[in-house]
Amino acid sequence: MTPVSAEATTPRGPLQVEGEVFSIKRVGDYFHLTVVADGIAERARPGSFVALSVGGPISGALLRRAFSIYRVRPAGVYGGTVEIVFAAHGPGTTWMAQLSPHDPVNVVGPLGHPFAQPLEPVSCALVGGGYGSAPLFALAERLRERKCAVHMVLGAATESRLFGTLEAKRAAQSVTVTTVDGSVGIKGLVTDPLPALMTRNGIEVVYSCGPMGMLRAVTEVATAHGAWSQTAVEESMACGIGVCMTCVVPVVGDDNVTRMVRSCVDGPVFAGDRVRWDDIGTVPAGTHGAPRPGRPR
Amino acid sequence: MTRLRPEDVDLTTVLADAHLDNPVMTASGCAASGRELHQFFDVAELGAVVTKSIMRDPRSGRATPRMAETPSGMLNSIGLQGPGIDSFLATDLPWLLQRDARPIVSIAGGSLGEYAELARRVGNTPGVAAIEVNISCPNVENRGLVFACDPFQAARVLAVVRRDTPRGVPVFAKLSPDVTSIVEVAAAVMEAGADGLVLINTLLGLHIDPATLRPSLGGVTGGLSGPAVKPVALRAVWQATQALPSVPVIGVGGIRTGADALEFLAAGASAVQVGTAIFNDPGAPVRVIRELRQELAARGIAKVSEVVGRAHPSLHPPSP
Ligand SMILES: Cc1cc2nc3c(=O)[nH]c(=O)nc-3n(C[C@H](O)[C@H](O)[C@H](O)COP(=O)(O)OP(=O)(O)OC[C@H]3O[C@@H](n4cnc5c(N)ncnc54)[C@H](O)[C@@H]3O)c2cc1C
Ligand SMILES: Cc1cc2nc3c(=O)[nH]c(=O)nc-3n(C[C@H](O)[C@H](O)[C@H](O)COP(=O)(O)O)c2cc1C
Ligand code: FES
Q1: Rg of chain B's alpha carbons, rounded to an integer?
Q2: Which residue of A10, A166, B48, B142 pairs with B25 in a disulfide if CB–CB is 3.0 to 4.6 A?
């Protein structure tokens, strides 16, 4: 196993910033949004996320929407910017898709526990499903700075739901693309080419971001190859800052005890082999503080 | 009416034996134990930090999904996930006290014995400004019926908590609006020894997932909160203070702005709590303090206590 450490960071902690749309562009089925929001760039780490308010100042949609940070630029000639890639999914993201340059957007971030990075120059696979590839590019850059070999595997249902395949060619030694419908790349899932890629390149760490089912399957492959896995999960969040306890997933601790852990502060990135993927959506028996049989709660 | 400068408004608030710098607090369960919000503002600026309801034992809470967004609000079904009282007293409460915050500790139990034990342990910790008793919990000794829904059971809880809490530490009963007569429950808990009321907890609601046509939440039903419940909360505060004019009341439900807080004070609340609005704006509690100051100054009201209960014509006849 490779020893891994999160980077020491200064300055730290999230900010709340009244930002402004710099640009919004369509990319396949997604939107690439750049927001001028000072101070976030300096604090962001690969894998951290931002939470945006939606619907404007008199909106009845109170809860913020969470998005992985795709790219950041520290303040220069323009103010600092933060970029995200999103799918217009429900009412909040559909509203976001209508934003125009100069529109105000309120941003809280950066939030969450980022990807841990290896101390040694090892071979890494970065696996992204759909818009899940967005946070992997900044990670690839950091890993290359640490002299790690970077191999990317990007998958989606169809070509228009892939994000960043061209950019991946600059970011990684090798890029493998899969689509379920075979519209581009290998027909199938990201986990189809992954085992051979891992063997061929001696992969020691697998990073993944995408739907829960994909994270689970990627973790299985990584663990079977004796590799270390880092997964960025996506669980519904009400606050995004750790105060409400809505975003929990069952995670096994170093003491082998399962706890319902907040994915907004202790995640979104978890060691894949610690997450009880099959038990998400339940409180598994034996979880710390779970109701004991015969004792009504 | 002369306008005042906002900084000249006196926001100090007295709630039974608790003296607060201002009447704005966090709502239980919406601020954890203050640590996360301290990244956005100094928790010592608040009138008080009301901590997430703590139980005797560690508790995992309910299965996910635990929330659903609803028009101007949300449903939650957290199931009181928490570390248990030992861990709370060892880490969370000392952290708040070290930052000079004023902690109001919310306690929750499944039996009278559990409430009594929590009251003793919390009440005997120096620095606790007050105890808030969350009685919206199933009574394991009474077929799982929620204490708050029965005036008799609610009163029993408050009686044991008051009995086992040291004098000088006020005990507030937090009531559920899901009852036929909130005045009846309020009168019962006051009679049992409570020093004041917190109105209101969430309303029970349901969300259906349009894709599956099944309930969205892991816990099936959930508690409704946010601006959607504000009129219900205002009504509860108004009814309770109309019937029990001398009782200190803390108003909570849908407060997002200083103007919202002012409405609660006018309805009879002596202090307010900000909950769900924090999820939209982590700085909401301190913003509400600032805005409340401005609202009072603009109306020439020099002291927050002058506005408490203004909405009651019988208590405050309109000046000629
Ligand atoms: C850490 C994290 C990173 C994310 N990164 C991205 C990203 O880079 N690009 C992207 O397109 N999407 C991302 N998502 C998902 C994104 O947050 C949801 O698609 C979005 O919240 C949906 O909002 P809506 O108003 O369109 O949908 P609605 O269904 O109307 O949302 C209703 C409520 O449910 C919550 N919600 C609904 N779906 C999700 C979901 N999948 N995950 C979390 N909360 C949800 C919303 O926040 C909102 O509070 C991420 C989620 C998390 C937790
Ligand atoms: C996520 C969440 C968790 C809550 N947890 C508690 C709790 O532990 N104890 C309690 O007394 N009330 C709890 N509440 C209720 C709030 O304290 C408050 O009474 C209610 O949400 C109405 O106020 P609001 O509209 O400002 O949120 C919770 C509310 C929410 C949204
Ligand atoms: S979303 Fe509130 S604790 Fe994670």
Answers
A1: 19
A2: B48
Interface of B with A in 50-109 (CB under 8 A): 52, 57-67, 69, 71-74, 76, 78, 81-82, 84
What pLDDT is recorded for position A32?
A: 98
Q: What is the pTM of this model?
A: 0.95
Give tens-digit pLDDT for B94-146: 999 999 999 999 999 999 999 999 999 999 999 999 999 999 988 888 888 89
Instruction: Report the CATH number of the A8-111 domain.
Output: 2.40.30.10
User: Is the CB–ligand 2 distance for residue B176 below 6 Å?
Assistant: no
Q: Are A40 and A80 in contact (CB under 8 A)?
A: yes
A65 touches chain B (CB under 8 A): no
3-class SS of residue B154: helix
Q: What is the CATH number of domain A115-233?
A: 3.40.50.80
Distance from residue B30's CA to the centre of ligand 1 (Å): 20
Return the residue of B nearest to A110 by Cα: B39
Give the closest of A14, A246, A296 to B39, CB-based.
A14
- How do the domains of chain A map onto residue ranges? 8-111, 115-233, 235-291
**Residues of B classed as catalytic:** 137
Q: Which residues contact B181 (CB under 8 A, 6 or more apart)?
A: none
Burial class (CB in 10 A: 0-12, 13-18, 19+), A141: middle
CB-CB under 8 Å, B276 with A283: no
Look at A241 and B59 and tell me if their CB atoms are within 8 Å.
no
- Note whether A283 contacts B60, CB cutoff 8 Å: yes
Q: What separation in Å is there between the alpha carbon of B252 and the centre of ligand 2?
A: 9
Q: How near does any CA of chain B get to the CA of A195, in Å?
A: 32
Q: What is the 3-state secondary structure (H, E, C) of chain A?
A: CCCEECCCCCCCCCEEEEEEEEEEEEECCEEEEEEECCCHHHHCCCCCEEEECCCCCCCCCCCCEEEECCEEECCCCCCCEEEEEEECCCHHHHHHHCCCCCCEEEEEEEECECCCEECCCCEEEEEEEHHHHCCHHHHHHHHHHCCCEEEEEEEECCHHHCCCHHHHHHHCCEEEEEECCCCCCEECCCCCCHHHHHHHHCEEEEEEECCHHHHHHHHHHHHHCCCEEEEECCCCCCCCCCCCCCCEEEEECCCCCEEEEECCCCCEEEEHHHECHHHCCCCCCCCCCCCCCCCCC
Phi, psi of A10 (to 5 degrees): -145, 135
Convert the pLDDT of each residue in A99-136 to its tens digit: 999 999 999 999 999 999 999 999 999 999 999 999 99
Partner residue facing A60 (CB), from B71, B144, B278: B71
Ligand 2 center from residue B81 Cα (angstroms):
13
Residue of B nearest to A57 (CA): B280
Q: What is the set of domains in chain B, with CATH numbers? A: 6-62+78-204+225-306 (3.20.20.70)
